[in-house]
Amino acid sequence: MAIIAQLSDIHLAAGRDGEVDDGSGPVRALRAAVSSLLSLPARPDAVVITGDLADGGEHAEYARLRALLSPLPMAVYPMCGNHDDRDELRKVFDDHPEVTGTGKFPQAPVQYAVDVAGVRLVCCDTTVNGHAHGHMSEERLAWLDGTLAAAPGTPTVVATHHPPYPIGMRFIDDLRFVDPAGFASVISRHRQVVRVISGHVHRASVGSLAGTVSTTCPSTYRQLFLDLTSQGRAAVTGEPAGFAIHLIGLDGSATTHFAPTGNYRPLMDVE
Ligand SMILES: [Fe+2]
Fold first, then answer.
1. Residues 252-263: tens digit of each pLDDT
2. What domains sit in the chain, N to C, each tagged with a CATH number?
């Protein structure tokens, strides 16, 4: 059994001078999320962060991010969201061979596969330079197809920033994963994919894609207002921040939990 924790949409922000304010909301929120993971009785085997790590894609933001993640003793796998800068991310995570290995040319996609306690985690790059929507080119889809084909018998979690299914919130669907049919077609060819996990939505949701279950994760920082009307107001709301925990069995079983940030303790035992 692999336990994969998912954090998302941290949005660390730097001021004009490049300094990240230590007391700012996203910093405090990330500290709380890290503390939450450390307080879990069953420690995750790895943490994947599904994009929007740095609000402005600045070097100082990534450097601060690394420092804030340093209490986590397990492997941490960073991914790009539409707010990120691939090259700045690679510079700061330069001791992550799976991340730097993708960076042979400027703004090369940050895409890689790793083993987590016998389960495969395949991190895709759905971001498009200068745009907030998501897309995977034929080249990126071919990489995903080939990567999945290399281990057809290993339960696999595929991670993206943009979710590949409609969310129903106008603001988010306007910034959606454009034309996810190619992605769905690749996933449908690889039955070992037990989950597709995403960020971008700043709230938990569950969808389906090509015969597998697809989920989004709360933001460690701000949640988006749940407005499913056609006008779809774009607003942040005061719902608690959170994270996801994916339990992936070596037999292909998969269970996802969503939990609010906080160090919640047992109050009383239940008979
Ligand atoms: Fe975000």
1. 999 999 999 998
2. 2-260 (3.60.21.10)
Contact 201, 224 (CB under 8 A): yes
Distance CA 97, CA 141 (A): 22
Q: What are the phi and psi torsion angles at 118 (to 5°)?
A: 90, -5
Residue 52 C-alpha to ligand 1 middle, in angstroms? 5
pLDDT of the residue at 22: 62
Cα 230 from Cα 86, distance rounded (Å): 34
Distance 271 CA to ligand 1 centre (A): 42
Let me know if 98 is exposed, middle or buried by CB neighbors in 10 A (0-12, 13-18, 19+). Answer: middle
Confidence at residue 15, expressed as pLDDT on a 0 to 100 scale: 74
- Indicate the length of the chain as a whole number: 271
State the pLDDT at residue 24.
Answer: 73
Please state the φ and ψ torsions of residue 216, each to the nearest 5 degrees: -120, 165
C-alpha span between 149 and 173 (Å, rounded) = 30
Instruction: Give the distance (Å) from ligand 1 centre to CA of residue 7.
Output: 11
Low-confidence stretches of the chain (pLDDT < 50) are none
6 forms beta bridges with 48, 244
Two structure tokens written together for 248: 């992936």
Asked whether the beta carbons of 114 and 77 are under 8 A apart, the reply is yes
Residue 256 token pair? 């996802």
Encoding tokens for residue 191?
A: 């039955």
Q: How far is the CA of 237 from the centre of ligand 1 (A)?
A: 14
Q: Spell out the alpha helix ranges (H) of 93-169.
A: 97-100, 138-149
Distance 208 CA to ligand 1 centre (A): 21
CA–centroid distance, 201 to ligand 1, in Å, is 7
